[in-house]
Amino acid sequence: MSKETTKLQKEEAREAFKKKVYSIMFETSTPQGKKFDLLLLAMIVFSLFILIIESLPSLSPTTRLVFYILEWILSIIFVGEYLLRIYVSPKPMQYVLSAWGIIDLLSILPVLLLAFTDSVIYFRIIRILRLIRIFRIFRINQFTREAYSLYNSLIASVYKIAVFMFFVVMLAIIMGGLMFMVEGKESGFDSIPESIYWAIVTITTVGFGDITPLTDAGKALASVMMLLGYAIIAVPTGIVSVEMFKQRELESKQGKQKCPQCDAENSSKAVYCNQCGNKLVSGELKVKS
Amino acid sequence: MSKETTKLQKEEAREAFKKKVYSIMFETSTPQGKKFDLLLLAMIVFSLFILIIESLPSLSPTTRLVFYILEWILSIIFVGEYLLRIYVSPKPMQYVLSAWGIIDLLSILPVLLLAFTDSVIYFRIIRILRLIRIFRIFRINQFTREAYSLYNSLIASVYKIAVFMFFVVMLAIIMGGLMFMVEGKESGFDSIPESIYWAIVTITTVGFGDITPLTDAGKALASVMMLLGYAIIAVPTGIVSVEMFKQRELESKQGKQKCPQCDAENSSKAVYCNQCGNKLVSGELKVKS
Amino acid sequence: MSKETTKLQKEEAREAFKKKVYSIMFETSTPQGKKFDLLLLAMIVFSLFILIIESLPSLSPTTRLVFYILEWILSIIFVGEYLLRIYVSPKPMQYVLSAWGIIDLLSILPVLLLAFTDSVIYFRIIRILRLIRIFRIFRINQFTREAYSLYNSLIASVYKIAVFMFFVVMLAIIMGGLMFMVEGKESGFDSIPESIYWAIVTITTVGFGDITPLTDAGKALASVMMLLGYAIIAVPTGIVSVEMFKQRELESKQGKQKCPQCDAENSSKAVYCNQCGNKLVSGELKVKS
Amino acid sequence: MSKETTKLQKEEAREAFKKKVYSIMFETSTPQGKKFDLLLLAMIVFSLFILIIESLPSLSPTTRLVFYILEWILSIIFVGEYLLRIYVSPKPMQYVLSAWGIIDLLSILPVLLLAFTDSVIYFRIIRILRLIRIFRIFRINQFTREAYSLYNSLIASVYKIAVFMFFVVMLAIIMGGLMFMVEGKESGFDSIPESIYWAIVTITTVGFGDITPLTDAGKALASVMMLLGYAIIAVPTGIVSVEMFKQRELESKQGKQKCPQCDAENSSKAVYCNQCGNKLVSGELKVKS
């Protein structure tokens, strides 16, 4: 029986430990949680710094070796951190499948795949996405609110932009095909995919100039296309502007929120109740971490 | 008499056949119609895939031959399909002159013209326009509605954009002429049409860089032109934004629609009546196919 | 006395003649006025056509001579037309100083200056501005109204855009100076004016690529500048959009106009009174010709 | 005692002198203040003119020497002016730390640092910022009001634009890293910082073309990136448009202001009271000089 009790106690202790680690790793309200997140941020920034330095061609072999070892150490820490996060989560799958879980996985993927050679290594740049946590850690409310507002506007216009993109890509394919037909293979329009690449460069008004029409017919067709693209570029701007306007209207209409503790009316932008000082939920970013 | 009856029966059978084929070819509400459209879409995508592969320079003669034969087979099918569509239409001319009829004709034109050699072949890229059917087949209501809304906004601003384009082209011609005068023939401004092409590349902010001013006067004039173009690019965006805003206002004002079956009020975005489940017309794309 | 009467009659006849010619040259409501304007348009288009052909490098000397003579004939006609316009105007100075008078003068300036040699000849391209008459001749009411509406929006935002341009040019000068300092003379940043030209090319997102930063510091500074320009490009669009929105609001508020003949209420967009069919003034372009 | 009185009188005289000089240097309402500011503007413009001329490569040593001496004289005057401004200010630190104080300091910094050799000299271009005074001197009320209105709109959207820039830079870093991985070092994507520079050039649609993808995978990735950038460019425009709209609404709502002298109602845009002719404060730029 004592053995069983010990087992139970152990189990309880483990649960308490998991809970504590969870609060440190996933929350930022406790001082320890904040410290952990700051440490993590610092390590991510340092890891990105190593990555960028490593990419410079003029690096002595010794420095390269030092950075190589440092990167291995950081990568092993990140893998451990990921496994620990899964271990302490009450619902591990929920974490793994969340946006943050996927970003965390992608960040360590090059290590997991032992693809620590060649240029695949640079896929680690995706780690920068983990820096979005910065909004959460520093609780810069004005920023998170604006980020959330931007996010809402974009979500509201996602269908319109998808439809728009469908037609832009279609236009790029048609124009690419026609330019390939008109210009022939001498001008750098070597194949249809190449021409579609050129068409996208042109419609988006980037205009690298690595491929340009040489024949008169090609230049005429390109001119029509550029004027068309000129009018077309107005469309996504119009879409987003209107949604932002509606979002802004909505925000100023919502106006009021009730404090759940004392029932006092507060501005929807309030972070603390102006009567009882209770922390209000609406002041925080609603994106789950 | 029996002969006449047979004739009449034949006529009737033919009419019934035409009606059935029509419903398969032009409608997507029946399972057969949907299957037909999916098959057609697959063939169009395959045809485009062939076209793009054919354009690659590094293709073995055997592969090229195989693709050549496949393309011929697909083209003959598309020609047959076009003729059948005309045959089964109750009002053939209406189909031929509709937007879809013209796209279908353009898609098979290279074959009809027996222009199956040289680079005219690549005009087949226009077949991609037939993919717009995708909206119709999958009945992605949200998308068709957004497409329709975008379409309305653009139609409403078409006059303003036409006037704007008139002045932009005029500005490009004047600027092209002046640059030709200032730069002379040494800098790549070989003729006025060439200079107008350059002016369009510049005003639309594409900026390939294949032709650039070399003299000081040319650079000064180009600078003025770019600053002008910078302010001008705001115009189409303004036009489209305002129309989209009005369109959006209109949509949210319409607000309600009555179910034609049970007279219940429904949201204008509803696809089925919320009282009797009757399919509402407004939820569909109003563009005729 | 008879002599005096003759003189008076002559005077009167001349006045009547001047009035008639005036109505032909300046008005488009009479069939003769319309015919005159159409002929003029045709001659301007032909003159522009000659100008463009003349600029092509691959032209035989004979063709060049023919075009040279044709251009001389047209130019003399235009000079004659300009003088006649002054002669028949009741207030000649008003015509000369009007927008149209200045455009007409600029169109014949190269001839007047006998600068019919060299490349100054291409300044004739400015003649294209006379094509704006097309709106007046064809009385395409929808277009003139839209042109007028665009014009109003731009006029309303002219102060804001001027202030904006002041700051953009200032930014371009500062950035040009800094890039010249950072890049040195090896990279194509040969002088400050050259660098300012580059800065304008970059801020306006044209990006020819004829001059590009080569040093790391230069690339970093250019990156900051491009991101700045990215945010800045939003400003003129915002200005114009808001003015267009206000203009549009104004137009839909004005709503009604009274027919000056029968006092019936008409939409502000009406061209003819819906009660008596009287032509309404508001349907026409208010810009004086 | 007479000595003390003299001292006191001297002190008073000095105070009066300081006050007078202050009003000349810092204010523009007196004729002398206006003259001083005009002289200063002229000297700044002349100094910028020298700077630009000096940067031209084709300059004879004699001219260069003359300009060198002139620049030294102007610089000493500007240093003297800065010291005098500090001396006559009632609260010197307030001036030194104000926006104008910092600009004035930056303008003379190259001289103070005795860095009057090499290319650091061109940092003097920052002097152009002092030209903003032009709004104050000429009291072009319409312009200052528009500048103020633009300024307000930008301030109101500064958080949203900061958040947007955070994500754009993040996207540029990720895309730069991926392109470096995909393209390898042969295509000009020499290092990650170089690739990030390319990504910024591409996302902002500048598109110099000094570095372009050469591999198929690189072109595909670049295409995705350009289409993404195409949608993204809509965001700052949307942000600024909405804020400008709100600003404009606010301005037209404010509508009225009371004259502090006679209590008469005036338009908020009025510069003088329409009853008593009293100068109204609101008509001036609220930015402190």
Automatic annotation (TrEMBL), chains A, B, C, D:
UniProt-recorded name of the protein: Ion transporter
| Matches recorded under PANTHER family | POTASSIUM VOLTAGE-GATED CHANNEL PROTEIN SHAB, VOLTAGE-GATED POTASSIUM CHANNEL
Q: Which domain of life is it from?
A: Bacteria
Which keywords, in A-to-Z order, does the entry hold?
Answer: Ion channel, Ion transport, Membrane, Potassium, Potassium channel, Potassium transport, Transmembrane, Transmembrane helix, Transport, Voltage-gated channel
Instruction: Give the GO biological process terms.
Output: action potential
Checking Gene3D superfamilies in the record gives: 1.10.287.70, Voltage-gated potassium channels. Chain C (1.20.120.350)
Example GO CC term: the record gives: voltage-gated potassium channel complex
Q: How does it sit in the membrane?
A: Multi-pass membrane protein
Could you list the residue ranges that cross the membrane? Answer: 36-53, 65-84, 96-115, 158-182, 220-242
UniProt domain Ion transport: residue ranges: 36-249
Localization recorded for this chain is: Membrane
Entries under SUPFAM superfamilies matching the protein? Voltage-gated potassium channels (SSF81324)
